[in-house]
Amino acid sequence: MIVTPGWYMALAAILFSIGAAGILVRRNALVMFMSVELMLNAVNLSFVAAGREVGLITGQVAVLFVMVVAAAEVTVGLAIIVAVFRRRNTASVDELATLRG
Amino acid sequence: MSYEVVETVLFVLFAAIALAGAVTMVWAANPVHSALGLLATMFAIAVFYVLGSGHFIAAVQVIVYAGAVITLFLFVVMLIGVDEAEDRSERLPFQRQAALLLAGLLSAAILVAGSGAWVTGARNPVEPQGTIEAVSDELFGTWVLPFEITGLLFIVAAAGTIVLAQYRSRQRDEEQA
Q1: DSSP run (H or E) holding B28
Q2: Phi (first) and psi of residue B145, to 5 degrees
Q3: Which of A42, A83, B35, B88 could form a disulfide with A15 if both were Cys (CB 3.0 to 4.6 A apart)?
Q4: Which residue of B19, B35, B80 is in closest CB contact with A14?
Q5: Chain A partners within 8 Å of B147 (Cβ)
Q6: pLDDT digits (tens, 9 = 90+) for A49-94
Q7: Model confidence, pTM
Q8: Helix A29-54 vs helix A5-25: angle between axes, to the nearest 10 degrees?
Q9: Reduced to 3 states, what is the DSSP secondary structure of residue B130?
């Protein structure tokens, strides 16, 4: 049995869907944020598998860029969560309904 | 043992770990357990990078994600307190069921759409070796301008984080006044 890139891509698709389910199901802003990270990682995995299949290093360079942007996103996102928690004393997105008409 | 057998065994083992970690992350009531589940998934993905000859990005994955990002998450969990009493009741009826159904449908749709052609493009039998030298040749050759722009992005992100961290609530200012 040989592991083809399709296996990695199928695994990446399932991990991505689990991350999407996490965003839809959870109400804790932190866990939703972790779900976003999981989705980014799943896409990275598919980049590496595709680059391996085509024989180009570009897939790995793309992963590096995604990691950089994700790291920047994590710092700002967590700062926002902490700022919201200081003001509202909650990390639940259901409580943040001020814009509701 | 041949390389194929080793890769198959490692793939099955670490795919199970990655999926278990991901499901733990979504379902655990305690955010600390969620972070640890995500950590397991990150490590498993680093193993997949090694299997795909991405040695450098595997190291970066462990250092940046498993090291820095998860630590940051755990710091924030400790900062805002472990809130295990998350209200699992929904304000909209059947929202949870609908969410799980939609996630299942998304997974099925991606798998069906991709089962025909996962990878398009000319197939190259030579597997790229993701050493530091090979990655840096590509990064600082073709992609040097995007690389510089990510540097700018980092400065903006760091400045934004500092501004957000200096936020003070109006109430506290009044108490101090």
Answers
A1: none
A2: -70, -50
A3: A42
A4: B19
A5: 65
A6: 888 888 888 889 999 999 999 999 999 999 988 888 888 777 777 7
A7: 0.88
A8: 170
A9: coil
